[in-house]
């Protein structure tokens, strides 16, 4: 008999997975309306895509429809949306009248790539298979999302609040760098620092 406290197994066609798939499908739609010079439509499409991120997590908890596919699909959809939006919004000819600083986009995308590379190295070097999200990582994600929302909203309103956006850019840059440093220290340095102890123990046992 199955344990009633354990979440039921869910397959591919679950509400959370469908919402994550919808977020992925909305990415090309967002890019299309943005590059077509329709800032109002771009803002609403991005808002709808971002809303699915909240809704798929809510559905997974309320409906108890967690699956292995969802563990991969949800963060993949998030990164695809965020990366596409940051790159597209950094082009002044596409994102008007406000565009993200290219340097900020480079830092945000490079941080994500560095985390993926670091996770692969940890898996190969220390057999680490799971990585808990950090507080700084969550804060940086919130700041990045708020930064994108601000740019797209002000573009939809055809407003150029240089001071406000400059502060948002600085805050997003700072939290992104802090989260990158925190992930590097907690998830990379500390894990690899424990390996010499285990190797030392193995050497000691073999020498007896």
Describe what you observe in this structure.
With 208 residues, the chain is an all-alpha fold. The chain has two domains: 8-88, no CATH class; 96-197. Helices cover 76% and strands 0% of the residues. The protein has seven helices and no strands. The protein has helices at 15-35, 39-62, 68-88, 102-126, 135-157, 162-193, 195-206. Helix 4 (102-126) packs parallel to helix 6 (162-193) and helix 5 (135-157) runs antiparallel to helix 6 (162-193). Residues 1-8 and 197-208 have low confidence and may be disordered.
Helix content: over 70%
The span between the termini is: 49 Å
Percent strand equals under 5%
Overall number of structural domains: 2
Mean pLDDT across the residues is 82
| Residue windows where pLDDT falls under 50 for at least 5 positions | 1-8, 197-208
Number of helices: 7
Largest sheet: none
What string, H for helix and E for strand, traces the elements in order? Answer: HHHHHHH
The best one-word shape is globular
Radius of gyration: 21 Å
- Helix/strand-derived category reads mainly alpha
Number of strand elements? 0
């Amino acid at each position: 008999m199955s344990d009633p406290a354990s979440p039921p197994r869910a397959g591919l066609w679950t509400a959370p997975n469908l919402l994550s798939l919808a977020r992925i499908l909305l990415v090309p739609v967002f890019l299309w309306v943005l590059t077509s010079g329709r800032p109002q439509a771009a803002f609403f499409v991005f808002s709808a895509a971002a809303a699915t991120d909240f809704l798929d997590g809510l559905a997974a908890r309320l409906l108890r429809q967690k699956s292995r596919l969802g563990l991969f699909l949800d963060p993949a959809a998030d990164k695809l949306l965020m990366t596409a939006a940051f790159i597209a919004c950094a082009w002044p000819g596409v994102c008007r009248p406000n565009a993200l600083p290219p340097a900020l986009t480079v830092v945000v995308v490079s941080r994500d790539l560095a985390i993926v590379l670091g996770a692969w190295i940890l898996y190969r070097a220390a057999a680490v298979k799971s990585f808990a999200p950090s507080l700084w990582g969550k804060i940086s994600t919130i700041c990045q999302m708020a930064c994108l929302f601000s740019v797209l909203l002000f573009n939809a309103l055809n407003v150029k609040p240089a001071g406000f956006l400059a502060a948002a850019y600085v805050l997003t840059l700072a939290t992104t760098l802090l989260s990158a440093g925190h992930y590097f220290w907690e998830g990379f340095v500390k894990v690899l620092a424990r390996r010499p102890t285990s190797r030392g123990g193995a050497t000691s046992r073999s020498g007896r």
